[in-house]
Amino acid sequence: MNYCTGFDSPLGLDRRNFLRSFGMGLGGIALADLIQAAEQKGHSFTGAGDPVPKAKRVIYLFQSGAPSQIDLFDHKPQLIKDHGKQLPDSIRKGQRLTGMSGNQASLPLVGSPFEFKQHGESGAWVSDLLPHTAKIADDLCFVKSMYTEAINHGPGVTFMQSGSQFPGRPSIGAWLDYGLGSLNKDLPSFVVMTTKGKGGQPLVSRFWGSGFLPGKHDGVRLRPDKDAVLYLNSPKGVDSSDRRKVLDHLRRLHEHQLEQTSDPALETRIAQYEMAFNMQRSIPDVTDLSDEPESTFELYGEDARKPGTFAANCLLARRLAERDTRFIQLYHPGWDQHSGLPKGIRTQCKETDQASAALVTDLKNRGLLDDTLVIWGGEFGRTNYCQGKLTANNFGRDHHPRCFTMWMAGGGVKSGTSHGQTDDYSYNVVDGGVHVHDFHATLLHLLGIDHERLTFKYQGRHFRLTDVHGKIVKPILA
Amino acid sequence: MLPARPSLPIILLALGNLPLSAERPVDFNRDIRPILSDRCYKCHGPDAKNQKSDFRLDTREHAITDLGGYFGIVPGDLEKSDLHLLIRSDDKSEVMPPPKSKMSLSEKEKDLLDRWIKEGARYDKHWSLKELPSEIPVPAATDWASTPVDPFILRAATDFGLKPSPQASRESWLRRVTFDLTGLPPTIAEIKAFLAEKAPDAFEKVVDRLLSSHAYAERMTSEWLDVARYSDSFGYQRDNERHVWPYRDWVLRAFRDNLSYDQFATWQIAGDLLPNATRDQILATTFNRLHPQKVEGGSVPEEFRIEYVSDRLHTFGTAFLGLTMECTRCHDHKYDPITAKEYYQLSSYFANIDEAGLYSFFTRSVPPPTLNLTTPQQDKQLTEADKGIAGAEKKLAAVIDGSDAAFKSWLQDPGVFLSFGLLSHTSFDGREGGKLPDRVRPDKTANTSANNESVKGVHGQGLRLTGDDPVSLKDIGNFNRTQPFTIGLWMNTPMLLERAVIVRRSKAWSDAASRGYELLLEDGKLSAALIHFYPGNALRIRSKEILPIGEWHHLTMSYDGSSRAAGLQLYLDGELLDTEVIRDKLTREITGGGDPFIALGQRMRDNGFKGGLVDELQIFDRELTPLEAAQLHDGKTLSELLIAVKEDDIVLPGKSTQQLRAYFLSSHQPHIDALTALRKARDTKRAIQDKLTEIMVMQEMEEPRPAYLLERGVYDARGEQVTAGTPAALPSFPKDQPNNRLGLAHWLIDPKHPLTGRVTVNRYWQIFFGKGLVSTPEDFGSQGQPPSHPELLDWLARDFIDHGWDLHHLIKQITLSSTYRQSSPTDPKIREIDPENIYLARGTTNRLSAEMIRDHALATSGLLVNKFGGPPVKPYEVAVSYKPAKPDKGEGLYRRSLYTWWKRTSPAPMMMTLNASKRDVCRVHREVTNSPLQAFVLLNAPQFVEAARVMADELIAKHPAAPDALIEEAFRALTSRKPDPTESSILRALYDEQLALFEKEPAKAAALLKTGDAPARKDLPAHQQAATAVLINAIMNFDEAVTKR
Asked: Which terminus of chain A is more solvent-facing, meaning fewer CB atoms within 10 Å of its CB: N or C?
């Protein structure tokens, strides 16, 4: 099926009109380009019932491995009081545990050893592990009542990214690229960056895959090495002006071919090579940090100078946002503290806290935060009870799907708020629960998309990011 | 506005242009079903649970039924038909479809529905579910027709005001057919030969030549691997490598030998069930095991086992039936007449293998069931080894038979009881901190944490276990499966335990597939097992009775080294326990899974013996006899008997004599020698077996697994039990066939089956025209596209089946047709009438597949290493994949892309960029897109730059001072035609420019010539080599080098 040619066009043109208007019709890219150009003029999403877009782009700081809500945001004095006691049956309510600790004979509760304070005018609780995040608390919207269905990383991340626990569905970024197209055709519209050299649960390329959508909606990974994009650089011995000369001849060949065959696919081919040439310049333009002043590195931290760190990736995210990349996905693995949590979480926070806060501040200072949605969070939460042995200085927490905390900023969400509540043990959500599908529905809403209308027909069914679920979380909308 | 319904039927758009459509009577399948299915069935369709009202539209009977004074449809009467009134209503609260559904009907669609009601609201069975006719008349042939395909195409084109295009040049056809059939370009020599060939059957000769080539098998295999979701790794997150390429090589052989398609399907679905199945027939069933498999710790095995079974069904459904089964996993199909119950009936055919839901994290075991891929030499060795074992067993029996006299004389003076073979005895007395002394080995201890408390035991102290803390005997018990052994201990179980680990010599439960041996409580019953990979390769026996709780009992587990369940015994308080055999298939090692020692009471991620008491743990390196087990329990049965026998000269009852004799034999030297010889013979076999290469296959369990309808598709939400069966809307199951996968395969290949033939010819049609006659090859249901040429589809399917499902025959019908021979450049007006080329009044243009693009460069440069089959290889690109791997050296860099190592979480990045399938699930169509990232691959990837460079060297050597001749040959090699004057001059300008450039900057030339492993020739001018390489690379990027036209 060719989705490009059979659809109700975003401009209200059917293909026939389209072909008439443009003489002989256009292939994939050319068509998409025209639509995108029109969008930039403000023609997008005026269909009845579509929400007004608040965010143009998204930066999603994915904390892979699942950070402990109990030690970062979800302050629970009761747990500290009951430290060492067994998880009460009245709280657990017979719900299933993961296969890793589920068979443990003893499940002692663990209060957080980290100090919690309220911050900003909003009085948000943040632990002393995240001093920088604490400082921008009034810019953030904490959702403390996230919950999911997955109990393991693979299904958990897949669920957060694609709305299904099993592989095969498109990821959020792919849906957005499909639904909204690109804002800057010289850059990929869905970019992925992973922190280099982190152990922990492996990340797999499926997380940013296009599923059953055409492959061009796959996330494009920016690598922290010389080829930021696969084979971006010309081979040794060929420089940019040499390449330009060759491409000029190639273009002549294609134009000649177009005359011979009248096949509009050749226009696409010509555009493909022009875009490639432009990208060969525009991508290094993003990744070359030499034009950043000292103050940038003061803000993001010295790590931002080291390619592949979370801080460097945050800085690149800002540079991509400035250039209108639609969906920028960061992955920072290493939050999976089944054991050794006190030490492990400290390292994680040190690597991410300053840069995450810097990114929000930086976007705000540049006037980009209003239409950029920043999201911070993992695939599920962690248990209030200890996995393995609870000792005086050490403990671990297992996977916990029933509640976890995420934060968002900018892009149409209410700043300085905390939404939802868990019970006194941070075990179950008691108020304002936000399911993964609700999170997706809300994210799409902020981008001006009715989540029930962004569909793709595959194997006879109209698929959605939100499957057949999803409610917009209205209380967090600005 | 969003592309909410991106697949709005393309055909309707085309029809809109065409003169005849308006006058035709309404046809249910063509005009009405697509509307009802897409807009109405979700709430008024076949899904019984989803009815928003009593009104159902999926059958005429429902649609016209009296709903208490009102009617959805009154045939012929618009005003009495609520359907008409509601779709035209202005009232937002009653209009259909409701605004909330975000669906609407166009005026044209409303008119169609009205006309349909007026004309009598006739329903028709969905086209693809109608039996395949036994004859389909071919329209009258014209001069234009070459094969029976053509009159069908011509009629449809003519109906829509189109005329066929002129025949393509011979070069174009040869290029097309060579790529389509072999995935490779024709060589210049082949082009020349074909141009010179005057025989009337020149075209057929070419097709015959191509069909008989190995490259044909490789091309067809490449297509099938997407269907089979073939991958060299398991997938999901951990994504370990797996050994499945022998299946791929079987597919290669099947296409090479032109195995008929009905057999091709049957072997893959149920080859293991064929009478006297050959190794290849069993190997073909690996098809069903190629789905992703899970290993992540803490996962629920049953959840993933269900997922695997579902994947098998989805693959079967997509590949052979063209039906989307996924929807019916959670609820009745909203569009097609398949219910959730039928889904689980059909999926249960694929559930009956003894598999685990997870593969093993701590070992490299191949998840059973498996097939041993023995070499002829290994087969011979195994036969020899079996003979050796049989001989040793015979000898042992002879020793026993011949021991009467020795036994009698022994009875005169049997001596005192000796517990020989005792390796270790932990009494749990004399504990020092975490150390428990060993009575047999004074220098060793068993270790425990302080949490396990010393309490009063049976003899002195015992230990109370927490369930989370093991007692470990760090250096004992690493027995292999030919080593007889015995373990005895006292235990006291605090309550009825669903599952508890008492003794184990294994690192983990599902994370290691339980590799090792173990003694467990399962639902309160004692359970002993020796395990390679549970459950498919293991021995397990379980007591029939529950172990009494809250009291001390002595337990002995003994094993004779036979690799058979019959060699495992359990004794309770010295009495042989009544047990049942749960598993009895052990053919590989039980060692090597980690934790090579005995531990009590706990295992990683398993249920420990929480609150359980233990005492007097004894370990022997031989199988104890029954009297010894009794002695272990009470410390007197045997010793007292021995004294009694000697002193009193009593007459023993038969049983005791037998048992005494067993005890006697265990110290009788000839018997010991015979046992040692037997063990040696078993060791010989074990050594061979443990080295055999295995592959996952299907192997039917003796009893089918009970199958259930799963509510909302959730693995543990079992609804009613179901039995295997095929959906009611499809043909009935053949009465003379077994109700298993083999019967299912026979059901599938019935010559009248409505789907199999149509789906298959459609998929092969797609290979040649880029798009099937049904443009949704994965969906022949009511949400799929109807066929553009229904009669042709039926005719092709019938012809294919009547010719013995012979793919060569089908392919010749297509490739020798005039339809396939048409040229593709066309008048823009024709393109406007039929932009998608649905009516095939011109040749199709399609971009080459990822594999073809890479293989093209390798073939034209001469780098291609033509080797048929074998292990996967790692070309340059794996070095820059998401999880980089080390590329091969030498020929692995230059094999056909079919052989590229496929890792699911990190697939070959060039292949992905060029739209190869991800191979997570069955795919029968690739979405081809164009992106700038593809240009990077062709312009910059070392594979292409090197190919251009190597080809340049060859052409320079051939045309040292004739750039125009060189350009012509390069262009011809890469496009199969000579350049026209404009093209020649553009390329010459390019070349001259580059030549000057590299002459000026020799360092650049030198740098470029270093790309790739293949050495550059030293005897040629470097600037000329570099310039020619750039020239050739430019041609590789030229549209015609990557497109079939």
From this structure: C
Where residue A428 falls (left for φ over 0; alpha for ψ -120 to 50; beta otherwise) is: beta
CA B569 to mean position of chain CA atoms: 38
Taking CA–CA distances from A259, the nearest residue in chain B reads B825
Report the CATH number that the domain containing residue B520 is assigned in CATH. Answer: 2.60.120.200
Across the interface, of A16, A100, A268, the residue whose CB is closest to B930 is: A268
Model confidence pLDDT, tens digit, residues B27-73: 888 889 888 888 888 888 877 666 667 788 888 888 888 888 888 89
Per-residue confidence (pLDDT) for residue B51, from 0 to 100 = 62
Residues A320 and A252 in one domain: no
Are A317 and A284 part of one and the same domain? no
Task: Measure the CA–CA gap between B1040 and B602, rounded to whole angstroms.
Answer: 66
Residue B846 near residue B928, CB atoms below 8 Å? yes
Domain ranges, residue A180: 45-224+307-476
Residue A263 lies in a domain: yes
A399 in helix, strand or coil? Answer: strand
**Chain B residues touching A106 at Cβ < 8 A:** 466, 468
Q: In Å, what is the CA distance from B885 to each residue of A210, A421, B230, B864, B874?
A: 23, 46, 19, 21, 8
Instruction: Give the number of beta-carbon pairs within 8 Å between A and B.
Output: 310
DSSP, res B318: I
Cα distance between residue A197 and residue B28, in whole Å: 60
Alpha-carbon distance of B664 to B675, in angstroms, equals 14
Q: Which residue has the tokens 């007006």?
A: B829
In this complex, is the C-beta atom of A255 within 8 Å of any C-beta atom belonging to chain B? no
Cβ(B783)–Cβ(A460) below 8 Å: yes
The number of residues making up chain B comes to 1045
For residue A312 the two structure tokens come to 């460097």
A279 near A243, Cβ under 8 Å?
A: no
CA distance A419 to A413: 11
Domain span including residue B59: 10-124
SS3 content of chain A, % helix, strand, coil (to 5): 40, 15, 45
Domain presence at residue A236: yes
Peptide bond just before B871 cis, omega within 30 deg: no
Q: CB under 8 Å, gap of 24 or more: what pairs does B136-140 form?
A: B136/B791, B136/B794, B136/B795, B136/B798, B138/B795
Any residues with CB less than 8 A from the CB of B838 and at least 6 apart, and which?
Answer: B10, B11, B14, B775, B788
Running DSSP on this structure, what letter comes out for residue B712?
A: G
| Torsion sign across C-alpha atoms B376, B379, B383, B385 | positive
Per-residue pLDDT, B732: 95
DSSP state of B504: E
Tell me the three state secondary structure of residue B1043. strand
* CA–CA dist B57, B61 (Å, integer): 9
Asked if pLDDT for residue A45 goes beyond 50, the answer is no
* ipTM, 2 dp: 0.87
Domain boundary, last residue among B621, B655, B685: B621
Residues 6+ apart with CB under 8 A from B230: B244, B247, B248, B290, B902, B919
Total structural domains in chain A? Answer: 2
CATH code assigned at A396: 3.40.720.10
Task: State the best of B759, B930, B1042 to mutate against chain A, taking most chain A CBs within 10 Å.
Answer: B930
The reply to whether residue B935 touches residue A276, judged by beta carbons under 8 angstroms, is yes
Mark the ranges of chain B whose per-residue pLDDT is less than 50.
1-22
In a domain, B698, yes or no: no
3-class secondary structure for B165-186? Answer: CCECCHHHHHHHHHHHHHCCCC
Determine the Cα angle at B227 with ends B244 and B920, to 5°: 70
Contacts B930 to A, Cβ<8 Å: 27-29, 216, 265, 268-269, 272
